[in-house]
Write a structure and sequence with these properties.
Number of helices: 1
Largest sheet: none
Structural class: mainly alpha
Order of helices and strands: H
Number of strands: 0
Strand content: under 5%
């Protein structure tokens, strides 16, 4: 493992097969990438909403302290 000030080496790998990936693999890969992009986009939107409106508006409700005292 490279130290903090050292550059990590990047290793290049040759393709596993000389054939192109089949349509099933390509479709599955595209679906996974789109799913990941949606999740990242939703998280970014959630964080931006919380930043602009505060956590209380985002659904995190604070409990109010009751005014009753235990006897």
């Amino acid at each position: 493992m490279a130290g903090r000030d050292e550059k990590a080496p990047i290793e290049l790998f040759a393709p596993a097969a000389k054939e192109a990936a089949g349509p099933t693999v390509t479709t599955r890969f595209d679906d996974a990438v789109l799913r990941l992009a949606r999740l990242i986009g939703r998280q970014m939107a959630r964080e931006e909403f919380e930043r602009r409106h505060g956590k209380r508006a985002a659904g995190t409700k604070k409990r109010e302290k009751s005014s009753r005292k235990s006897v």
